[in-house]
Design goal:
The structure is a single chain. By secondary structure, this protein is of the alpha/beta class. It has one domain: NAD(P)-binding Rossmann-like Domain (Rossmann fold). The chain contains 11 helices and 13 strands. The strands form 4 sheets. The protein has a 7-stranded parallel sheet with strand order 3-2-1-4-5-6-11, sandwiched between helices. Strands 7-10 form a two-stranded parallel sheet. The chain has a two-stranded parallel ribbon with strand order 8-13. Strand 1, helix 1 and strand 2 form a beta-alpha-beta unit. Helix 1 crosses helix 8, helix 5 runs parallel beside helix 6 and helix 9 packs across helix 11. The relative contact order is 0.14. The chain binds nicotinamide-adenine-dinucleotide. The site of nicotinamide-adenine-dinucleotide has 29 residues, from helix 1, strand 2, helix 5 and strand 5. Nicotinamide-adenine-dinucleotide binds next to helix 1, strand 2, helix 5 and strand 5.
Length: 321
């Protein structure tokens, strides 16, 4: 049993991780600022079952970029590990508000590293993103490929976090794993993401915008349960590493049109499709090489896109909000 700080534990991926950690009797301190990037009521709903657990779970509403507030959290708890998932996510919104992305993602992550150094917390796992690959032409994307040309401020902040992490490992000996998630989807999905917006628009008979003219835009959609298994494997093994970067993706990219056809099938309704060019900031294809995660974390995805969309739609149709 370990005591784990989970930042962003009220969010889509974070709340699923907390489910698993509490189930196996780890102690969780969740820090989240419940910001209004999307409706905070959804985040309250995500943590509802966790807050019923008074012995192994504590919820702290704080901003990770607030050094004073976070110092209090570290002074009051002795953490064995940090699972850092709090961030401003989303590519397009980052072009409109890059300063908030730098504040939450880069300053926030550095605050956590600094406090880990001060309070002797040695094991740190955090969320990076496939977006760091920018226009990488080598497919599938490998952790050793260059990530020097991010296409969006969001991607740039994630790359910055990886570089800062590497530096903290070098100067403190901290064990750190940076996990590059590839387009995650599933129950509790963020409402700003394509899968949710598509499903909502299809059901409401609204037009959906699909990037590209043909099948050239592809995403390596990865089911949330697979991502959570990878995160937990990283948390359990991070002590064996120095600083490592891992791709966590389905390793089976599908075109946007195929993705929409699966949604249509499961929702039982046709989409009104408008084709539009790929906007600046987005990348044309994502495709994860996951051999490193397989080798070092004994992890590989097991949910096909067809199974995952079925599960997503089941949740979508009975969601509370
Ligand atoms: N969902 C994906 O497809 C995807 C892909 C790649 C990487 N990621 C990364 O995974 C992590 C989790 O993403 P998600 O999809 O669950 O997003 P999410 O927005 O649902 O979860 C993030 C949580 O962090 C909290 N948060 C944000 N800024 C904060 C701050 N400054 N202080 C405290 N709390 C803060 C939010 O309130 C939210 O609850 C993020 O780091 C994201 O960048 C997600």
């Amino acid at each position: 049993m370990a005591t784990i700080l989970v930042t962003g534990g009220a969010g889509f991926i974070g709340s699923h991780c907390v489910d698993v950690l509490l189930k196996r009797a780890d102690k969780v301190v969740c820090v989240d600022n419940f910001n209004d990037f999307y409706n905070p009521r959804i985040k309250r709903e995500n943590v509802k079952s966790h807050t019923l657990q008074t012995t192994n779970y504590k919820l702290i509403e704080a901003d990770i970029a607030d050094l004073t507030a976070m110092e209090k959290v570290f002074a009051e708890h002795k953490f064995d590990r940090v699972l850092h998932l709090a961030a401003r996510a989303g590519v397009q919104p980052s072009l409109k508000d890059p300063l908030e992305y730098v504040r939450s993602n880069v300053v926030g992550t550095t605050v956590l590293f600094e406090l880990c150094k001060k309070y002797g917390v040695k094991n740190f796992v955090f969320a990076s993103s496939s977006s760091v690959y920018g226009g990488n032409k080598n497919v599938p994307f490998c952790e050793t490929d260059s990530v020097d040309n991010p296409y969006s401020p969001y991607a740039a902040t994630k790359k910055a976090c990886e570089v800062i992490a590497s530096n903290y490992h070098h100067t403190t000996g901290m064990h750190i794993a940076a996990l590059r998630f590839f387009t995650v989807y599933g129950p509790r999905n963020r409402p700003d993401m394509a899968v949710y917006k598509f499903a909502d628009d299809i059901l409401s008979s609204r037009e959906i915008k699909v990037y590209g003219a043909g099948d050239e835009i592809k995403r390596d959609w990865t089911f949330v349960d697979d991502i959570v298994k990878g995160i937990i494997a990283a948390l359990d093994n991070v002590g064996k590493f120095g600083f490592e970067v891992f791709n966590l993706g389905n390793s089976n990219p599908v075109s946007l049109m195929y993705f929409v056809s699966l949604l249509e099938k499961e929702l039982g309704k046709k989409a009104f499709i408008k084709r539009t060019p790929l906007p600046v900031g987005d990348i044309p294809v994502t495709f994860a090489d996951v051999s490193k995660a397989k080798k070092l974390l004994n992890w590989q995805p097991t949910t096909s896109i067809e199974q995952g969309i079925k599960k997503f739609v089941e949740w979508f149709q009975q969601r509370a909000l």
